[in-house]
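User: Please run a holo structure prediction.
Assistant: Happy to. Please share the sequence and the ligand.
User: Here you go; the ligand is flavin-adenine dinucleotide.
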Amino acid sequence: MNLTPSSKIVIVGGGVAGLATAWALARRGLGMITLVEREEGCFRVSSGQNAAILRHATDSPATRNLTRRTRDLLHAPPADLCHEPLVDERGLVVLEGNEQTPLPWWADELLADDSCQTLSPKELASKAPGFVGEGARAWWFPHSGTIDIARLGASLERSARATGVAFRLGTGVKRLKTDSSGAVTGVVLEDHANLSADLVVLAAGAWAGELGAAVNAEFPGRPTRRHLFVTQPETRLDPNQPVIWDDAAPFYYRPEAQGLLLCIGDQDDCPPSVASGADPLVLRAARRALARRLPQFEGLKFARAWAATRTMTEDDTPVVGADPRVAGLFWVAALGGHGMSLSLGLGDLAASMIAQDEVQDAQLVAALAPHAPRRDWIPQRDWVQS
Ligand SMILES: Cc1cc2nc3c(=O)[nH]c(=O)nc-3n(C[C@H](O)[C@H](O)[C@H](O)COP(=O)(O)OP(=O)(O)OC[C@H]3O[C@@H](n4cnc5c(N)ncnc54)[C@H](O)[C@@H]3O)c2cc1C
């Protein structure tokens, strides 16, 4: 469909998917946009409850493409968004593999564009003092780090409001409205308000699938739960130390509030939900992992523990594009474990697809499409590093 500045667009969800899309659409002057968020404010669900790590070492080429675009935008945000970088310069160490396992899918590409360097055991020890990892190979990503997610959310909302986006906060979308042909024509809110729309953007995170299914749209994502833990403050910790992410363990940690934020890489299917308290079994496993991976901090108490939702696809690639069967519906969902790293690049691409820009990366657009074949990811390559 051809949208004009007077077309009505409703965006469902005020997480990073919805806000980044609203921001990118509004700065193009496209559409009269209303963003509906069930919570009293934006960035209250997964987008406000994550580890905030910028990482572009991912197996999915489409995710990698978008996270690299976002890396540049977060380091030098557009003036209408923010005048300071939205990510710090602490860097990221990724550990993975052993001498027998093939190199990761991302290695050639990211080495070639200077995104990363290999680290010797001595260099690793100086970046991750005392860390007992599993991965035998270590990679250094100097341009990765911690994203200021509070500022990212606030900047997106402020900029979107300044360019005319209307916000309906504290009331959810009860259902999508359709006409007799099944095309989406708007939304009905929980407060019974009716909003008509030429296009509805489903950016409802873990709830996107449910809302789409009710109008016969298929969504290849599934909500999963993951825990994060933050320890009490600890004076021996260097607040500037890089993020350490061991894919082989799996285990990652970084400084947070004078303590450590850590994750043991748990992933369980779950119903859509806002954050919950920690499962006692996972809590115990996290204590054991802390003692094993960072023995110098064994016994350090957790000050906070919570579980939040990541909506995953089989190929770890988000779902972005017009629904192939249901007219008037556009997906920006299933951001998996990469939503913050995808943020600005993803919003910009979604807006460009909605605007039907002539110049599009056809391969990227095809990989993100709701109906793209999403085969199980097979982590193997046909050659091993010599
Ligand atoms: C433990 C954990 C750690 C993570 N760590 C990282 C990380 O280090 N780096 C990274 O890049 N990513 C990370 N992620 C992933 C990232 O948090 C998500 O990919 C991202 O937040 C998803 O954004 P979203 O906008 O799709 O969903 P959400 O942020 O959940 O937003 C969806 C919004 O839609 C609203 N909504 C739902 N239904 C309705 C309705 N019917 N009407 C109105 N509103 C509705 C919800 O209230 C919610 O605000 C992590 C995730 C988790 C859980």
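The domain at 92-142+222-312 is CATH 3.30.9.10 (D-Amino Acid Oxidase; Chain A, domain 2).
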